[in-house]
Design a protein that fits this description.
single chain, alpha+beta, four-stranded antiparallel β-sheet, two-stranded antiparallel ribbon, 2 helices, 6 strands
């Protein structure tokens, strides 16, 4: 039998899988990332290059997907030790209510900048979709990916 393997009643156990003695090991958080996301947020915003698009707000769907550095992880079940998705939702609403933008790309960049302002965020993927542009198309839009490489 290979060194380190245990065999008992036709069951083979690897040595690192034997956690029956002592404390369970704690997860090593060094360099670990947590995914924080906002999915399918639908709201009205003033967006578009054409005159008819500037007359009334349009429905957009926004998705944010963030890779967040965990550092020391969640401390004492305290929300102040994690990136709050509530802050992302409130910030997205503020940006969408902050006046007209011509392009979905511009709105996407503003949302990415908001997310990357938190130094724990390593990467963000932002998807902005206009929902009512074409009658026979569910959505059109853009997805961008941005990184905090200097942090």
């Amino acid at each position: 039998m290979t060194a380190g393997l245990k065999q008992d009643a036709n069951i083979t156990t690897l040595p690192f899988a034997d956690l029956t003695h002592g404390e369970l090991p704690k997860a090593d958080l060094a360099g670990s990332l947590r995914r924080v996301f906002v999915r399918d947020m639908v709201m009205h915003t003033s967006i578009g290059v054409y005159d008819h698009e500037k007359e009334a707000p349009q429905r957009v769907r926004i998705n944010l997907d963030l890779a967040v550095f965990e550092g020391d992880g969640v401390q004492n079940d305290d929300i102040s030790t994690v990136l709050s998705y509530e802050d992302l939702v409130v910030g997205t609403r503020r940006i969408c209510q902050d006046g007209h933008v011509n392009l979905v790309e511009t709105l996407g960049e503003k949302l990415a900048d908001m997310c990357l302002a938190d130094t724990r965020v390593r990467k963000v993927i932002v998807r902005v979709e206009k929902l009512d542009v074409f009658e026979d198309v569910a959505a059109v839009g853009v997805e961008i990916e941005r990184h905090n490489i200097a942090r």
